[in-house]
Amino acid sequence: MTRVWFLLLGATAAMIFALTILVIVPKAMLTAIEPPPDLKPYTVAQAAGRQVYISEGCIYCHSQQIRDPAFTTDQARGWGRASVPSDYYYDVPQLMGTARTGPDLFNVAARLPDRHWQLLHLYQPRALVPWSIMPSFGYLFRVKDAAAPGEEVVTVPPAYAPAGKVIVASPEASHLVDYLLSLDHTYPPVQPTFSRRVQSP
């Protein structure tokens, strides 16, 4: 019986230690973070698109974090500077991701700012990138005889366009592109307060 209590006590101590080191201390260190001046809160449309991004599982194939150039080639790929905690000030939850089946999207708006390109890429990725393995999100679009006033029409190459029809973006597709076009972190980074304290003599 003594061994059982010893094991339980050891397991509890290990959990408390891990919780303190991995959750409580980092959270306390990051409480003083402020958003960079050039980072703006999401608009209503961008926030709605962020929810579409989550619900469609984009996070499973795309990351939103540029790692330190000392041990990765992220910057050499043209993805931008290394990300810092303040870049995620308005992101709850953060969508940094862990897999890169597709390219990182931390600065996708700076690399690919064309709205129509983004819509067409969602509708049929292979219309733009023949070797792409990204699935088509065609179900986020409507095939119609004619577009109604105010609808976003997507010009699709003949090989992918239904004959005699037009492709229009649904509100979900439009909002998702609004969100993607908000991902531009090319402003100067703002280092967290604790980093400056550590570096000071």
List the helices and strands and how they pair.
Elements: H1 2-29, H2 44-55, H3 108-111, H4 115-123, E1 141-144, E2 153-154, E3 166-169, H5 171-180, H6 193-199
Antiparallel strand pairs: 1-3, 2-3
Overview of this protein structure:
The chain has 201 residues and is mainly alpha-helical. The protein is 35% helix and 5% strand. The chain contains six helices and three strands, in the order H-H-H-H-E-E-E-H-H. It has helices at residues 2-29, 44-55, 108-111, 115-123, 171-180, 193-199; strands at residues 141-144, 153-154, 166-169. Strands 1-3-2 form a three-stranded antiparallel sheet. Helix 2 (44-55) crosses helix 5 and helix 4 (115-123) packs across helix 5. The chain is elongated and about 80 Å long. It starts with a helix and ends with a helix. Mean pLDDT is 89; it is low at 195-201.
Structure characteristics:
201 residues; 6 helices; three-stranded antiparallel sheet
Class per helix and strand makeup: mainly alpha
Q: Give the helix tally.
A: 6
User: First CA to last CA: what distance?
Assistant: 52 Å
Helical residues, percent: 25-40%
Q: Which regions have little confidence, pLDDT < 50, spanning 5+ residues?
A: 195-201
What would you report as the Rg, rounded to the nearest angstrom? 22 Å
